[in-house]
Specification:
By secondary structure, the chain is mainly α. The protein has 22 helices and 4 strands. Helix 7 (about 165-185) runs antiparallel to helix 8 (about 190-215) and helix 9 runs antiparallel to helix 17 (about 370-395). One of its GO terms (molecular function) is prostaglandin transmembrane transporter activity.
Length: about 525
């Protein structure tokens, strides 16, 4: 007897599973509010050099003061990083006479003045992370994803060793602690450290929530579970836009997005440990208790009669014995056998491409043509129909084809916007929205697909490894924006190439549509 057969006898998918999904969707909503928070706490409003002795120009308007103090860029806007060493009063007579003498132009000497009409306070305005310090601003997202990368390794192993629920609770508690410390940061160094630690903690939430839900549902509802969990990520995307619109001071915004973790901690009390994991670890009594509770909630009163205590215990013991649970597994186990090795190498490449292209688009709201709040909301909205379509596609054409083509189409949309001329803003916006939809569809598929590729005894190790590789992509994505100083289109060319190549690699993975979740390594081999 397989676990799926036993789960079917408890009701398969009933009130017990619905309760688990509802509770686990709470932390799922909270995740993008942290993962994409960089768009708001590190946003850089328009700015120019601070002008010394401005009180001496009492007879001039602000526009005239800027005209004689700040050189113009080629597009006619005032420079953000340069100023005249001396006021150029002759420009008041003819503003078109921009001086060709570069010696009178210097870098900002007295700080910057920021436009606070949209953003009251960000880390850019608080610590002047602009111009030559622009890299430090982008690095805050990289620090966070480095933390997520480290957390993927730690929590992937620990959740297979000590259980899904225990590690999920630990990661939520740590997320609250480090999130609040981030909000209280008094220096850039403190923020960088606490955001890195927040990334470590939130990685556990990202890694555990979906597999814990998947291990309690039957084959017929696995796709539904994966898509539903992903839809709540999009809901979090939209909520982030609304919360950031209402809370425009970065310290309080961090508090606002961290607070919901407390509700998740309380609600986790009603979520049981994974019965699959308990059986794989030989903990029969706990698995027995949770299965009986599942049957009672699903109103399968005949379950206790069909499987009295002694018979159920025998069935569970037989499952555990068949799967040889006593062995100790670590990440190296993912590469010891031929099929698992191929799965791990290919899925690593796919996860890197998915994350790299997704965050490359998601962290570039200013290039969308709308204000950052509306862009964030639209990007969240477009993800939902993309996921609805994926719900049909992954069940019709399969996981492998869906994964490969969504990634390839993401890359083609990014590439299309390289060649579409800048004046065609409407067309560029439509292509960008389509690319974002394909990108989210690829992310939705990869979570579902990967959780089906690995056996129960290695599932969290597999998710930890792939999440580690994905977060490397997420950490590198914001830094690639800095390549525009080499060539303006180089970031887009990089995102496009990685997405298309990783999509091609997805064709090498095995199909998992309508197949039982593998319990042991021999099931995969």
């Amino acid at each position: 007897m397989k676990f799926e057969d036993l789960l079917h006898e408890t009701g398969g998918f009933g009130r017990f599973q619905i309760l688990i999904l509802v509770i686990l969707c709470l932390p799922r909503i909270n995740l993008p509010m942290h993962f994409l928070l960089h768009n708001f706490i590190a946003a850089t409003p328009s700015h120019h050099c601070a002008i010394p002795h401005q009180e001496a120009f009492v007879n001039l308007t602000m526009e005239e003061v800027l005209l004689i103090s700040i050189p113009r860029e080629s597009d006619g806007t005032f420079s953000s990083c340069e100023m005249f060493s001396q006021p150029q009063f002759h420009l008041l007579l003819n503003s078109s006479l921009q001086s060709e003498n570069k010696s009178i132009i210097q870098r900002c000497q007295h700080g910057w003045v920021y436009d606070h009409s949209q953003l009251t306070s960000t880390i850019s305005t608080q610590w002047d992370l602009v111009c030559e310090h622009r890299g430090l601003n982008q690095a805050t997202a990289t620090f966070f994803f480095i933390g997520v990368t480290m957390g993927a390794v730690v929590f992937g192993y620990l959740s297979d060793r000590f259980g899904r629920k225990t590690m999920l609770l630990l990661s939520l508690v740590c997320s609250v602690v480090f999130g609040m410390l981030s909000a209280a940061s008094v220096s850039y160094s403190m923020l960088a450290i606490t955001r890195t630690l927040t990334g470590v903690a939130l990685s556990g939430v990202s890694l555990i929530v979906l597999p814990l839900a998947m291990e309690w549902v039957d084959i017929q509802h696995r796709t539904f579970t994966g898509i539903l969990s992903s839809i709540f990520w999009s809901v979090g995307n939209m909520l982030l836009a609304m919360v950031a619109y209402l809370v425009r001071e970065w310290h309080w915004l961090l508090v606002a997005v961290t607070g919901p973790c407390l509700l998740s901690i309380v609600c986790l009390w009603w979520v049981p440990e994974s019965a699959r994991w308990l059986i794989a670890k030989g903990k029969m009594k706990q698995a027995h208790r949770h299965l009986l509770k599942c049957a009672r909630m699903n109103r399968r009163k005949d379950f206790a009669q069909l499987f009295p205590s002694f018979r159920l215990s025998q069935a569970l013991t037989r499952m555990a014995t068949d799967k040889k649970p006593g062995g100790s597994y670590f990440y190296i186990s993912l590469f010891r056998t031929p099929v698992l090795r191929k799965i791990s190498l290919c899925s690593g490449v796919v996860w890197f491409g998915v994350s790299f292209s997704y965050y490359g688009m998601s962290l570039n709201l200013t290039g969308f043509g709308l204000n950052i709040y509306l862009s964030q909301f639209v990007f969240g909205v477009i993800e939902i129909p993309a996921k609805m379509i994926m719900y049909v596609l992954v069940n019709r054409v399969g996981r492998r084809q869906s994964q490969a083509w969504t990634l390839i189409l993401t890359g083609l949309c990014i590439g299309a916007n390289i060649v579409i001329p800048k004046p065609f803003t409407s067309l560029r916006s439509v292509v960008a929205i389509m690319g974002k939809g394909f990108s989210e569809a690829a992310f939705t598929t990869v979570y579902l697909y990967t959780s089906e590729l690995y056996p129960t005894i290695l599932r969290q190790n597999g998710m930890g490894y792939t999440s580690f590789v994905a977060r490397l992509g997420g950490a590198l994505a914001p830094l690639v924006f800095l390549l525009d100083e080499v060539w303006r289109s180089l970031p887009e060319v990089t995102y496009c190439s990685v997405a298309v190549c990783s999509g091609a690699v997805a064709f090498l993975l095995p199909e998992t549509l309508n197949m039982c979740l593998p319990e042991g390594i021999e099931d995969v081999e």
